[in-house]
Amino acid sequence: MKLNIVTYPDKILRQKSNEVEKFDEELHELLDAMYPFMMQTNGIGLAAIQVAHPKRVLIINIPDEEDEQSDENLIEMINPVITEKNGITTYQEGCLSVPTFYEDIERFEEVRVNYQDRFGNTKTLEANGLLSIAIQHEMDHLEGILFIDKLSYSRRKKFEKEYKKYQKELKLKK
């Protein structure tokens, strides 16, 4: 399965993703394609909508102390729902769908998430730190929300201006 990153301002990123009802070979193929793709693009998280599949599917792999991402740290979440949230933290976020831009975003410090694995088994995960932030970031994608939507009005206007300039430069390089 060939995947490509959908980038802002593509309208597909604004779609709400559909609940997964079939935990079948098609879902497994998508998950199996998403992981190496995310690793090639230096991501730590990827929602299916970012590769033009509007399903409530996301994957996360947080680097360890040596900044390595090992296969056994991969988390696959299907139909995730946050059931608890605590504390507030700020983290400089980036996004594969909004390349080259990073902004300080406020998130919950800790979350508890119920989700299903690739076989439909129900799981619960308590997360804090970067894992908590990544889960919230990827779950926002499932709702059609981008991290830039959380910026103040003035910062968002500045971002739009910078992003248009970035897109023009990109076109000139092609």
From TrEMBL:
EC number(s) reported in the record: 3.5.1.88
Pfam families: Pep_deformylase (PF01327)
One Gene Ontology molecular-function label: metal ion binding
Requisite cofactors: Fe(2+)
Cofactor: how bound: Binds 1 Fe(2+) ion.
Positions with a binding annotation for Fe cation: C95, H137, H141
Reaction(s) catalysed by this chain's protein: N-terminal N-formyl-L-methionyl-[peptide] + H2O = N-terminal L-methionyl-[peptide] + formate
Alphabetically ordered keywords of this record: Hydrolase, Iron, Metal-binding, Protein biosynthesis
Cross-referenced InterPro entries: Peptide_deformylase, Peptide_deformylase_sf
Top-level lineage group: Bacteria
Active site per UniProt: E138
Enzyme class: hydrolase
GO terms under biological process: translation
HAMAP family documented for this protein: Pep_deformylase
NCBIfam families in the record: pept_deformyl, PRK00150.1-3
Function statement: Removes the formyl group from the N-terminal Met of newly synthesized proteins. Requires at least a dipeptide for an efficient rate of reaction. N-terminal L-methionine is a prerequisite for activity but the enzyme has broad specificity at other positions.
Protein family per UniProt: Belongs to the polypeptide deformylase family.
Protein name in the entry: Peptide deformylase
Species in which this protein is naturally found: Sulfurimonas lithotrophica
